Amino acid sequence: MIVYMRTFFFIVFLLTHFLVFSQNITFSWAKHFDGPVSNGVSVKLDAAGNVYTAGTFSGNVDFDPGPGNFFLNYPTGTALFISKSDAFGNFIWAKQINDVQIFGDPLQIDNNGDILLAGSYSGTIDLDPGPGSFFLSNSMGIDGFICKLDNNGNFISGASIDGLDNTVFQFHDLETDAAGNIFLTGLFDHSVDMDPGANLSTVTALGGNDIFVLKLSGNYVLSWVKQIGGLMNEAAHSISIDPSGNIFLTGYFSGVVDFDPGINSFSLSSNGSNDIFILKLDPTANFNWVKQIGDNGDDQGISLNAHVAGNLYVTGNFSGTVDFDPGSGQFNLQSEGSTDVFLLNLSTAGSFIWAKQLGGPLSDYSNHLTTTALGGIFLTGDYRSTVDFDPGPSAVRFTANGENDVFILKFDPSGILAWVRVFGGAGSDAPACMAVDAAEHIYTTGFFSETVDFDPAFPTFYLTASGSINAFVHKLSNCDGATSSVMDITACNSFELNGQTYTSTGIYVQTMMNAAGCDSMITLNLSISGTDTTLAVTACENYTWNGQLYNTSGFYRDTFTNTAGCDSIVNLNLTITHPIQTVINATICEGESYEGYDAAGTYTDTFTGMGGCDSIRTLQLRVNPKQYVSLSGTICEGESFLGYSTTGTFIDTFQTSNGCDSIRTIQLLVHPRQYTTIPVSICEGESYYAGGSYQTDAGTYRDTLVTQQGCDSVIITQLTVMANPKPYLGEDRGICLGSALTFHPGSFASYLWQDGSRSADFTTDTLGKYWVLVTDNNNCRGADSVKILVFHDPPSNFLQDMDSICRYDQLSIIPERSFSKYLWSTGSTAPQININTAGIYSLSVKDQNGCQGYDTIRVWQKECKRGIYIPTAFTPNNDGLNDQFKVRAYGDLIQFKIAVYNRWGNLVFTSTNPAMGWDGTYKGKPQNTGVYIWQCQYQLAGGLPSSEKGSMVLIH
User: What is the set of domains in the chain, with CATH numbers?
Assistant: First the structure.
């Protein structure tokens, strides 16, 4: 009856105590934009849950990831795309803007649901992606653009930030506030007019790249602009506005930088190549505080978020050992590999709260961070090798499938890992940006290569990139239908719940799938009132229990009824013991002991055993004595006596047949051997008696005699065989007609020629046979001979009469035949020369017979094409083919500069030498597969200054 009543209570409880439980993170869907090259850069959500993705592409790309097609095409360069889908990944529309560049997180949805985009351009662009047009054009430098579209992708408005003489201008992040104001940050060099209106508001970089932060109204009216910089390079990667309107920036700096953009100054000096800065400005852009984090490596702040009141969260990358407490305290983190990920929590007053790190043995990167009103901190990036993603005492390890894989994770406000998801394939895969809605559904964009399973769990969901890299959009869902309940149950002996039987008091948890397809967790607080206990007893002879006398071992039971009306069972496990008498015969060796006795005899001991019974032990002990032996010996050096080979006294201990020690003492004397070494030299082909026979080979030979003590006397002969001299008169050959030939056999002590002469060389102009006999300083002799067989004619007519050359080009002049020596009129002694001017060139040669010749060529100038060529991809894999990204010029360059930037806008390569190419590394580290932006300024001789830009793909 009790059980039925409690089951009824459980049913009522389930109807009234369900609670929402929302930690079931599952794969929802993944889409990709299929074509030669596409790259996801930024993703945002509107109030209706629609998903907006911005990025870049080249060639013909299908932006409808469903069964239909929607192609955008730009075959000659790099274009921007923006795509809209619903919350289920269904395609709505896609637009493109050609010949622009975007960096960082340049996309935002304002309070009206309109789309804001920011980027860079040079030349002339059309910002209207529809049938209309809105042209922007610049004549010098790099300009910035801001574009607004409605939620259908229709053009609303646009504006330009005009570069004056700059070569770099990049928007890295875009934010809006509740009033619709636009906040932008990034980097620039030289001079830029930051007012998109008719007025002029010029900022000029102090050194390399400087930081700017800009506030515009929703109609692009300038509110203010601030500049931060020093003599080296700085960049802001991220901007965030807190609920009070304060402005926060993070990025990196090097050298000495004044972070107060007002009339006062507040300077910091970097510890390494780059340090992290975190800057706070008030709503009117007045300096509030700045914090510095970094050591002697490359440390950068990548993304920050100040949307949770009172808290500032910052993520980025660091190397080495870094103190993440920017105050007077210390909180050191040390990277596991060359680059690790950090997550830092400061108060909005700049006080340290906590810091965490993620990393493995290679380089791992954080790319974006965001937070939600529910307190979740979300982070995405890419990792290599094996990484422990739990910075706490537990370990949550994943190993990348390829070069680098994607991770997405969540921390709670205390910095404790809530969950982590990873995916990737055999190639290079990386996220760029993420967006999280109010229900904590997570959307991520980036790029992938080859084939990737986008479902972090099971089963699988594969997508394959048809080009070098493709953009992806990925969604993880937070299961909102999860439930939980609590049951308080009291039972006598056992209780059954959902087929599971419990027999002891405790707290039990069951997790099942509910009707919504999410987890339903039941917590059972169970109390078992019935008892079943066992008493183990050992007694001597007999035992009395509950008035009953027991004299044999056994298992006995008694049953009572407790106050709850349940049976209380007591079990007796009884062991009856009896007195024991034991006799032990033992033998030991002299000097040992047994149970505390070391002399022969009979000993009796009495013990009290289990149950209080006596145990009597009688010990019969025998002691065996040790044995001692002394020996003496005499041996020769190199021999041994009983295992010993040196003079001395040695003591050995052995075991006799009765198991006791036998001790042997040896007195040993060792007589030494005698050694005599004799050095001897002979010529090659001679012999010398040693080692018992005549020797002709170099080496060490031993002859052994016997001393008066009967030991060896060893004579060691060190025999050296001197090589006979080898004069060389050359191969049988001819002689050039009209010239003489001199033989030089080499440098020796004396010479004898076939005619009896004794000079060091011999000259002749006659056919015949010639020989020489020489003697060296070791008095060894050698000979050689040669025949002069024929007369040879000297070479002629080996250059073509005429050739032509472009004014800016280079021409190779190559003889029609090969010779042994060359002397050009330019002074070169190479087999060929490269020239860049017209004229008459002559060549003197010597052929393989040693005969000399002379010829000339006349080169005249012709007109050729002019310009430059820049490749669209390269593969730095050291196979000798396309290993560098390099410019080819058709013409004489009098000015040249090229710069290459990665997806974060960092300058990874620059050169003013057109012959120098980029090998795909930055600060000695190979860069990831992906799309890189280049900008080139140049001037050909006789032409006007020119500027070009575009993108190329680095492929590993």
Answer: 2-21+481-528 (no CATH), 89-448 (2.120.10.30), 531-577 (no CATH), 580-624 (no CATH), 627-671 (no CATH), 674-722 (no CATH), 733-792 (2.60.40.10), 802-862 (2.60.40.10), 867-954 (2.60.40.1220)
